[in-house]
Amino acid sequence: MELPLSYYGDPVLRKKCQPVDEITDEIKKLVEDMVDTMEANNGIGLAAPQVGLEHRIFITYVPLQDEEGEYGTGQLRVFINPEIIEFSEEQTEMNEGCLSIPTVHGEVVRPFRVKVQALNLEGNEFVEEFTGLEAHCVLHENDHINGVLFVDRIRGKERKALDAQLRKVKNDYYSRRKKK
Ligand code: NI
């Protein structure tokens, strides 16, 4: 079931989310609904606060590059109570967007490689390494569960250039939704 998205301006996007104590049927249903919501909006990742819930959960579905550099189908991944346990000093800049901040895009610098520890839907702990676009996506979603948005990582005149667009998103999406 597709859930309504939270938009820029919504306080839930600024909350430090809470760890999941137990992977109940309710949590499993939430993850299922998050997948539906991400797919319906053509996203490559989604975090629980983006559907209004303060849980440390995010999902990613990043298209993978083959040897020729062509992007193909990705793999759906679920991260519950994730921890970034390592990241490379090497960084890359990529153009990011966010389902909670429609129409806004910007270049964000993040580590090229990260190692993440998390629980999967079965409650089993896993440790996995991600690079490139996948690393960016994991870090973007991990920011969400700490109340951080990609636009916070853009500084100076690049950030200033986004101000008017951000105000517009707040008016057009968040305020409009709130009045309903
Ligand atoms: Ni986002």
Secondary structure layout:
Blueprint (H helix, E strand, L loop, with lengths): L24 H16 L4 E3 L9 E9 L5 E17 L3 E6 L9 E6 L1 E7 L5 E7 H13 L11 H5 L2 H17 L1
Antiparallel strand pairs: 1-2, 2-3, 3-6, 4-5, 6-7
The protein binds nickel (II) ion (NI).
Structure description:
The two termini are 20 Å apart. The longest helix has 17 residues, at 163-179. The protein has a single domain (11-179), classed as Peptide deformylase (Peptide Deformylase). It has helices spanning 25-40, 132-144, 156-160, 163-179; strands spanning 45-47, 57-65, 71-87, 91-96, 106-111, 113-119, 125-131. The protein is of the alpha+beta class and 180 residues long. Bound molecules: nickel (II) ion. Nickel (II) ion (NI) binds at residues 98-100, 140, 144. Nickel (II) ion binds at residues 98-100, 140, 144.
Radius of gyration, CA atoms, in whole angstroms: 16 Å
What's the domain count?
A: 1
Q: What class, by secondary structure content?
A: alpha+beta
How would you spell out the order of helices and strands? HEEEEEEEHHH
The assembly state of the depicted protein chains is: single chain
The overall pLDDT, averaged over residues, is 95
